[in-house]
Amino acid sequence: MNEFNNVIDSARAAFERASAPAELENAKALFLGKSGRITELMKGLATLGAQEKKSLGAAINRAKQAIEMALDERRQALANAQMQMQLQSEALDVTLPGRRRGQGGLHPVALTLERIEAIFGSMGFDVAQGPEIETDWFNFTALNTPEDHPARSMHDTFYVEGGPQNAPNLLRTHTSPMQIRYAVQHVRQHRATTGTAQGEGLFAGSMPEIRVIAPGRTYRVDSDATHSPMFHQCEGLWVGENVSFKDLKFVFTDFCRTFFESDDLELRFRPSFFPFTEPSAEIDIRFQDGPLAGRWLEVAGSGQVHPNVIRNMGLEPERFIGFAFGMGPDRLTMLRYGVNDLRLFFDGDIRFLSQFS
Ligand code: PHE
User: Fold this and answer.
1) Which residues of the chain does CATH 3.30.930.10 include?
2) Model's pTM, two decimal places?
3) Which end of the chain, N or C, is less packed with Cβ atoms under 10 Å?
């Protein structure tokens, strides 16, 4: 009897050790297989007498049944464990946030342009767009920069087909041509609506003021961390009968403080030269705090519109006066967000760009 109990115990232990169905089947063979322990015991019965055969046989059968039961139990347990594992690995966590469709956003420079337009819009400025391929006249000559003027060399640029042989069309080097284009249009329209004869010399009557900004792409042969062959500018122009340099200072100071959300931002108007303004000034700003605090940073060129330019607008310079400025939205974007390499704006790297939307 004792021997049978040992066999049952060791079968249970063997089944318990099996951690996968295949191992369990191997363990089963050791006891119930052709030459397993139970089968061997059965074979031993052959040599016994009828009485012994009967009682021993019954005992062996009970042991066999006990082992089969243990086997079934273990099979069931392994199947349950397998099922548990599968359920766990296929589990769906309904509390996880869903995956969203990729969302686009505006380019950081576009955000700046929108901001510039909104701020100047609130000061009554119109927004105008002009061509990127420009004629020599609008880009230079009309802006008091004749063909042999040395200031042209500061605007080394890309020339394209079209236009006269000695003055081909070009990719505009600044947005200043829009001063002329917009003003000429403004004067023509005013003359049309008031019935004043067109083209009869310079206009010297009364007229609503010209107040416009003209943002857009501009081009020069330049390329490093702070210069790109394609960059943005935003022109500003205010012309009327009584618009002075102090208006320029007020308007631009107000703009910068609003743009950078800093009431104590300082501005400096540093004397400079542009053919189309007289006097002229570079505009520098200085932050009181933040990583750029204490350094003067150039953000725009500006000045009082030159009488020759007023003339090319079709206006009488004895009557009309104004100011203009040209600023760099790329630069403003770099300063606002603390970006140190201009080229990042134009590389199209989504890892950089997605930080702004
Ligand atoms: N067009 C000038 C430039 O590109 C900037 C400027 C605009 C200066 C208007 C004065 C007035 O450098």
Assistant:
1) 108-356
2) 0.73
3) N
